[in-house]
Amino acid sequence: MAQSKKAKALAAAVNPEMLYDLDQALAMVKANATSKFDETIEVAINLNVDPRHADQMVRGVVTLPKGTGKDVRVGVFARGPKADEARAAGADVVGAEDLLEIVQGGTIDFDRCIATPDMMGLVGRLGKILGPKGMMPNPKLGTVTMNVGEAVKAAKGGQIEYRVEKAGIIHGRLGKASFSQDDLRANFDALLDAVVKAKPSGAKGKYLQKVALSSTMGAGVRVDTATVGHNV
């Protein structure tokens, strides 16, 4: 597919061979996000890990201090008082067997999934559906918990999950193009800090390999890792 004049102009504004200072890169990505809609600002972090080995998996949750700019829909598997607690905290979809049937029928009307421990026998039946989407509740990520109210509020308040993919890359959202550069930087710092702290024992050599920023429709901007505040 041929590039539009606008796409070519945006790509031409970025030197693909150059490494930019982090703040300069953020400014460029914001300036290039000129679509009529509020583009999402994303980051790709290349790590020196092989996630096929259990001791090199990098996964966790982090709360972005400035939020994501996205209305996150939360689904909760719970019964009785815990279901009421989830609803009171703002969960969008709450249920047990009824919710199981809805998801099995092909409707997933939520972005994050939380469950109380007693529901995991039920939720386990959805492994082939939720697993590939990265939405299976997991106690290590705080999404299998009795504190469903707090978990729902966290998911609604800017908490995101991050997970390294097969190629050793973590993709994450930093917010919207309408965010200030300072807010995007604050979210970047929070995500990178979490990824660095999650460095697995099996990781050898230089952990942080490459960082690149982009917007939904804009060209990618490579970041000089020496300017991100971590030398790992």
Question: Describe it for me?
Answer:
The chain is of the alpha/beta class and 232 residues long. It contains eight helices and nine strands. A four-stranded antiparallel sheet has the order 7-1-8-9, covered by helices on one side. Strands 4-3-5 form a three-stranded parallel sheet, with helices on both faces. A two-stranded antiparallel sheet has the order 2-6. Strand 3 (74-77), helix 3 and strand 4 form a beta-alpha-beta unit. Helix 3 runs parallel beside helix 7. The radius of gyration is 19 Å and the shape is globular.
Main sheet: strands, sense, barrel: 4 strands, antiparallel
Low-confidence stretches: none
Total strands: 9
Main-sheet strand order equals 7-1-8-9
Overall form: globular
Instruction: Give the fraction of residues assigned to helices.
Output: 25-40%
Radius of gyration: 19 Å
Key descriptive features of the protein:
three-stranded parallel β-sheet; 232 residues; four-stranded antiparallel β-sheet; alpha/beta
Overview in brief:
With 232 residues, the chain is of the alpha/beta class. It is built from eight helices and nine strands.
List the helices and strands and how they pair.
Layout: H1 5-12, H2 22-32, E1 40-47, E2 59-63, E3 74-77, H3 80-89, E4 93-95, H4 97-104, E5 112-115, H5 120-123, H6 127-130, H7 148-156, E6 159-163, E7 169-176, H8 181-197, E8 208-215, E9 221-223
Parallel strand pairs: 3-4, 3-5
Antiparallel strand pairs: 1-7, 1-8, 2-6, 8-9
Helix pairs in contact: 3-7
